[in-house]
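Researcher: Here's the sequence for the chain we discussed earlier.
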Amino acid sequence: GLFDEELVRNQDDELSYRVRKAGGRILVSPAMRSRYQNRQSWRKLVRQFYEYGLWKTRVLQKHPRQMSIGHYVPPGFDAVVLAGLMSGLFFGPTGPLASVTALGAYAGTMALVALREARSGARGRYWLALVLIHHAWALGFLMGMVRFAPRWLQAEPPVPRLAPVVSM
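Model: Thanks. This is the structure I predict for it:
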């Protein structure tokens, strides 16, 4: 009833934003337990995060203030690296060299994260999962900017209203 039914992904994220905006709180209880079934293949993991990124664009269009700077980092990084690589076609090796340097810094950071997590018991392919998640989400977000581009110029249909929370 209160989910925005247009959204294929990110419905919980969008609803949580509206709850907080209406004065509500999201309670996370340490007593709560759940079971999580991870994706059974790398391809399914990539598809999952691609779709999260794609539909995050619609959440951005509906609620720009819901976004944090962290949401823009993966697509911004990928867009800058791609632009730098492409710039080599027109401006010489400076752009591609900067992109390769940025990719090297990213790879080094991921290696450090993977080492730290391996010490805490994470499996060896943890770094691969992180890289796939980052770049699938980024690609989905960038593709969402293209796919939903006409929606920037349209008025948004109303989403289900939440009653304001009254403190006692």
